[in-house]
UniProtKB/TrEMBL annotation:
PANTHER family: BSR5223 PROTEIN (PTHR36443:SF1). InterPro entries: DUF2905 (IPR021320). It comes from Paenibacillus allorhizosphaerae. This is DUF2905 domain-containing protein. The keyword Metal-binding does not apply. The keyword Glycoprotein does not apply. It comes from the Bacteria.
Length: 73
């Protein structure tokens, strides 16, 4: 099989998995509200920087890419 169709198939599988996690996991995973996320609230201003959430997503994506790369060798 050519590399482009294989890449498109894996991309579709990843999008389906992300969609399922997003729709179902949103009730159980509290991404964006993890300990370590920075929230500063003043009178008229709210500043939010999800540090730990960004790290968790980065590790998950890196692990996913590593697994995909391992399977496509």
């Amino acid at each position: 099989m050519d590399s482009v169709p294989k890449l498109l198939i894996w991309g579709g599988v990843i999008l389906i998995i992300v969609g399922l996690v997003w729709s179902v996991g949103g009730k159980f995973l509290h991404l964006g509200k993890l300990p370590g996320d920075i929230v500063v609230e003043k009178e008229n201003v709210r500043f939010y920087f999800p540090v730990v959430t960004c790290i968790v997503i980065s590790v998950a994506l890196s692990l996913g890419m590593y697994i995909i790369r391992w399977f496509t060798k």
